[in-house]
Amino acid sequence: MNLSVYLVTDDAFFKERDLVSTVEEAIKGGITALQYRFKHKSSRQMYEELLVLRELTRRYNVELVVNDRVDLALAVSADGVHVGEKDLPPDVVRKLVGNRMYIGYSVNSLEKLREVEHLPIDYIGFGSIYETSTKAEYKLVGLEALRQAVKISSKPIVAIGGITHYRVREVLEAGAKGIAVVSAILGFEDVKRATETLIDACRSYYKEKMHSA
């Protein structure tokens, strides 16, 4: 499970943009994982798109995660499935997927984090760390809450929400095992370059950390 640079798709960014070619550019730029997340497509369309993306992600050794839809994740043999409070409970998801894929869970408070610690999940998506325009309804948790979350949870924490290349360092310093982004990549015309900028920020942080150790 490598969620260090984790791209999440969103309907708003694909109104006039081809999904597969855009994702491939992000993959070439260096993303380690892709979460397929769409809310306004038919099951058939999502299945057909996921079949193509499954082949693409396998070719480049990038992990494929499906948001919400456990049935689609199983249908295309995804690497993981990501659920939240309003989706199927993680223990039910685990019964369905067994050990075939990992399970991610969205959390937006330290209180909720404590409540879900015992659940059969493999990583936690925690945020929103910063203000974001991607989600109309979101809860701002902040950087300090991220630091606390890392201390509280035994699960790897993937930070999400308003993360840009110039915020990568403080998010990683806070202890996040990965950064999940939408507009930091998809908000740019040159998706490959935007991805490379994020990757460079991550590498720079780890390089300095290694030298100071």
Outline of the structure:
The chain is built from nine helices and eight strands.
Query: What does the oligomeric state look like here?
Result: single chain
Number of domains: 1
Q: What is the mean predicted local confidence, pLDDT?
A: 94
| Category by helix and strand content | alpha/beta
Could you tell me how far the N terminus lies from the C terminus, measured between alpha carbons in angstroms? 25 Å
State the shape: globular
Rounded to the nearest angstrom, the radius of gyration is: 16 Å
Beta fraction = 15-25%
Would you identify the regions where 5 or more consecutive residues have pLDDT less than 50? none
CATH homologous superfamily caption = Aldolase class I
Largest sheet: 8 strands, parallel, barrel
CATH topology: TIM Barrel
Order of helices and strands: EHEHEHEHEHEHEHEHH
Question: Roughly what percent helix?
Answer: 40-55%
What is the CATH architecture assignment?
A: Alpha-Beta Barrel
The number of E-state strands comes to 8
Strand order of the largest sheet: 1-2-3-4-5-6-7-8
Count of DSSP-assigned helices: 9
Q: What are the salient characteristics of this protein?
A:
213 residues, alpha/beta, 8-stranded parallel barrel, single chain, 16% strand, TIM Barrel
What can you tell me about this protein's structure?
With 213 residues, the chain is an alpha/beta fold. It has a single domain, classed as Aldolase class I (TIM Barrel). Helix content is 43%, strand content 16%. The protein has an eight-stranded parallel beta barrel, surrounded by five helices. Helix 1 packs parallel to helix 2 (43-60) and helix 1 (19-29) runs parallel beside helix 9. It is globular, with a radius of gyration of 16 Å.
